[in-house]
Amino acid sequence: VSSEASGVAPARVSALRAEAEALYLGTRPKTRAAAGAAAHLFQGVPMHWMVDWSTPVPLVVADATGARLTDVDGHGYDDFCLGDTASLFGHGPAPVAEALIRQAKHGLATMLPSPDAGTVGDLLAARFGLPYWQIATTATDANRFALRAARAATGRPRILIFDGAYHGAVDDTFVGLTANGRPANRPGLLGEPRDLTLLTRVVPFNDLDAVEEALADHTVACVITEPVLTNSAMVLPQPGFHEGLREITRRHGTLLLIDETHTLSSGPGGYSRKFGLSPDMFVVGKAIAGGIPASVWGMTEDVADRLTRARDSQPEGRSGMGTTLSGSPLQLAALRATLEQVATENAYAHMNRLADRMERELTGVIAEARLPWHVARCGARVEVVRARLPLWDGGQAKTAHFPALETAIHLALLVRGVLIAPFHDMMLASPATTDAQVDRLIAATRDVVQRLTA
Ligand code: PMP
After folding, report:
1. Among 30, 158, 160, 328, who pairs with 223 as Cys (CB 3.0-4.6 Å)?
2. Which atom of ligand 1 is nearest to the CA of 140?
């Protein structure tokens, strides 16, 4: 999509990009040298997505503390990306850091429970409302295990996802709708010889008629969804969507799996607790252990019973649900510290107050410049969406992306000392974020928008 439809002339976009790129490269000799020195990493980075940011060479972070980053050249940044939610509660929260040091002296990985295990289970049940929990290492894994459990519990082969959703590197979920509305493997997917649509159905978000039709033959074990689509700009549920989804899934005997990995921004119990959703299964990863690789998946009594029966009816063998480092003493210590001391009501009150400011003031900047954009919000998560009206589904969200414009804005913000999430315009407020940082975010955004429009 050309950037014209975003309300910005393409020439302005390339001028902003060129100016920011020259500044970035000109003032970061050590960053440039580090990029050249990583010869034995594939594509020069420890994980290949790192070359997909807006930067001409990756930013190399020497320090991340609270909501601040410092690069190897000594430039400081106000961090509103926060590791794309992994550090939603700030970088290295003190109670987590202390718990890790304490635990390291007593063992990090034993493949056995530590004394924190029972307490962590109690904390999860009290916070998220489901009675039974398992620990995994990434949200990807938690989703994968929960989907397997759903298939085992129901004896059904298929799953249903919403177009434009992202649930991690879970093979079954890499299905989307093409421009003419047909299900297909998602573009860009590497090394996937299978037609994933055989076992994964996909329908537009907010479309209850399509859900009804997709579940009618009772072959679908599970619907997996985020409460709000947060990975294709931000698509909010229409009034009645979640109630309808719950009613239809129950009526067809399909389990409902809610993935709260990003919507944990809503409040201490996630979006589900805040808005009274009642999932059969629940997943949250990323920030749940304060930045330590850990995720959790929970289930109702009924799902737990059916899963137990399914296990008992199988011959001895591997369940396909688990990894060696999952449920480790390290993870349990970090989970306990995060749940007891970091992700508190007080922390969320602060995050929400700052996100209120971000929403209001970014809306003001957009209005001043008369741009056809709006701000969407999910608790501490704030997103600038390049469309005049709220998005309805993943298909619409695709038309609200302008990669050249977005990367120019991201790099222009970066050289002004502000980091936002890559690939779309997402900003998070953490307990460590300050009003002064929000002031700087707004001032930098206003400056960038003026360069693009005035
Ligand atoms: N679920 C959702 C909703 C996500 O946004 C993501 C990652 N962006 C994941 C799951 C996967 O998380 P991870 O990459 O940590 O496995």
Report:
1. 160
2. 16
Has residue 89 got a pLDDT over 60?
A: yes
Taking only Cα atoms into account, the Rg of the chain, rounded to an integer number of angstroms, comes to 22
Cβ-based neighbours of 305, under 8 Å, separated by 6 or more: none
Per-residue pLDDT averaged across 23-32, rounded?
Answer: 97
Cα of 330 to ligand 1 centre, how many Å? 21
Per-residue pLDDT at 36: 82
Count of positions (residues) in the chain: 454
Nearest CA to ligand 1 atom 10: 167
Pocket (CB within 6 angstroms of ligand 1): 138-140, 143, 166-168, 226, 231, 259, 261-262, 285-286
Q: Give the atom of ligand 1 at the shortest distance from the alpha carbon of 84.
A: 8
Mean predicted confidence (pLDDT) in 61-70: 98
CATH 3.30.470.20 applies to domain 94-342 = no
The pTM (predicted TM-score) of the whole model is: 0.98
Extents of the domains making up the chain: 3-79+345-453, 94-342
Q: Note the pLDDT tens digit of each residue in 312-355.
A: 999 999 999 999 999 999 999 999 999 999 999 999 999 999 99
Q: Which helix (H) or strand (E) holds 332?
A: helix 329-337
The reported pLDDT for the residue numbered 232 is: 86
Domain 3-79+345-453 falls under CATH 3.40.630.10: no
| Residues 136, 292: Cα–Cα separation, whole Å | 12
Q: Does residue 430 register a pLDDT over 70?
A: yes
Instruction: Say whether 94-342 and 3-79+345-453 share the same fold.
Output: no
Distance 138 CA to ligand 1 centre (A): 8
For residue 422, pLDDT beyond 60: yes
- Tell me, what amino acid is at 443? A
The pair phi, psi for residue 89, each rounded to 5°, is -100, 20
Ligand 1, from 261, 381, 423, 426: best to mutate by most atoms within 8 Å of Cβ? 261
| Most ligand 1 atoms within 8 A of CB, residue of 140, 260, 296 to mutate | 140
DSSP helix/strand/coil, 381: strand
pLDDT in the model for residue 3? 58
Sort 433 into a burial class: Cβ within 10 Å, 0-12 / 13-18 / 19+: buried
